[in-house]
Specification:
By secondary structure, the protein is of the alpha+beta class. It has a domain of 221 residues: Dipeptide-binding Protein, domain 3. It is built from 15 helices and 24 strands. Strand 5 and strand 6 form a beta hairpin. Helix 8 packs antiparallel against helix 10. It is globular and about 75 Å long. The protein starts with 14 loop residues before the first strand and ends with a strand.
Length: 534
Amino acid sequence: MATRRSFLKLGLAVTAAAASGSAMAQSKAGKSVIFRVGLLGDVQTLNFWASNDINVAVLQEAVMPRYGYMDADGNVKSRLIRQIDVKEGARTFIVHVTPGLKWHDGVPFSADDVIFTGEYLVKHKLFQNTRFSNVASARKIDNLTVEYQLKAPQVGFADVMLFWVAPMPKHRWETVADPMTVSDDPRGVVGLGPYKLSEWKKGQHYIANRNPDWPAALGTPAIDRVVYRVYKDENSIVLALRTGEIDATSRQFLPSMAGQFRKKPEFRIFEIPSPGYSYIGFNGKKSEFAADLAVRKAIAHCVDRPKIVKLALEGNGVPMHGSVSPVHKDFVKSKIEYPPYDLDAAKKLLRDAGYADTDGDGIVEKNGRKLSIKMMYEGSRNDYDKSVRIIKEDARKAGIDLVLEPVDRQVYIDRQSKTKEYEMLFVQWGAIVIIYDTFYNIYGKDSFLNYSGFHDPDLEKWAKNAKESGSVAESVKPMDEAQKVVVNQIPTLAVWVPNLIFVNSARFDGYLPYPSSNNGTITLSSLLNIKPRK
């Protein structure tokens, strides 16, 4: 089943700059075909359902894929699910499981797993839990068929389930009472994909071998083994790609990084518009200043988006002035935007809220405390580092001291989604696709992605109404109302939308790039399609 509204229609397109030159030599006959992927930082966890880590998503593509995928035109299509029938004005969905699939331990994949997945995610508030928040009941019709009855019409239910949700093996997880404590299953990682995770060493590598039980009808990969290697910084990844140590990376490249690979026949460069964006998040539970709306609005006035795009992204992106990316054209027509860059307005907001610089050091105070907030970000990313330094410089001109906290990727992910030990953060969403569903997934009270626990009843109401719409057109009005709350309350502050550049080895042909920084060209579709270049 394809989505009724492709991302191509929303303004996305996928282009590739193919390398020229003679073909690279293919592996010798009889030898395993090995494809090597570079990861920026380690994989957070092998519990795929308890993480929003980009490296987990890359590994998942091979080992534990989601029900469906997005094609190069931006259409959501099914894979582990053969078909979904939509009935009764988007209130009833009949899910037909693809036959012949087996979990890596040999147990057949069935309707029981599908039902269990949704119920377990909601019960334990795991990643993607809100995708099933509108489900009234899930009924097994037979071993390969499930009927979902929804509480209210939801036009995007099938698409978000296909695109975002990976099924869980019921026979392995039904006895797990606290899934957030599970990182590596001591019995072995059991997935459902065309590759089995056979070996791993945290901080170094992960090895996945071809699954002989993967149905040929879903595509037979030419790659026998995928090796994921962990690198600590961008320079190491660039060097590994340049020297042939790896064939691809999920890491997007800045133009200056990609420039050294252009016009070289050994590499292919893919340029892909992104459905994701960077943003600042505020955690009012950890900082009284982050909890102060006047401070959040003042910081919003300190974000010079055009300058940040020019310097931090090297011009390879666009400023994002509202809480919805401009790629979602139907949802930005109302031009509902954050407070604009205006340092004088920031200073006035702080004065009116009782902040003053009493000691002349340039930083305002209130109740004897200086306005200082720590901003955490992943220090290995140059685009993040440059962005936050520009924001820090302008915030200081307004009297705000932003203390930058560059941390290791693993530390960042743990503090963001597990311990919630941060005051502010700077990060990028990899893919915001079904926007009228995503708002509820980010701002809903019980959403896994609502990292700071921010809750506004009106925001949740409008986001829920947008999610539970019978058509895309019906979701525009509640989305407008939800956007108004976001730009007024500023629980998050969007900054830029990147254009994505990925560089791959030309030793292989058949890459199928993905319009997302989650996976780039290392998609399941690519892994089933790429082969050594002849």
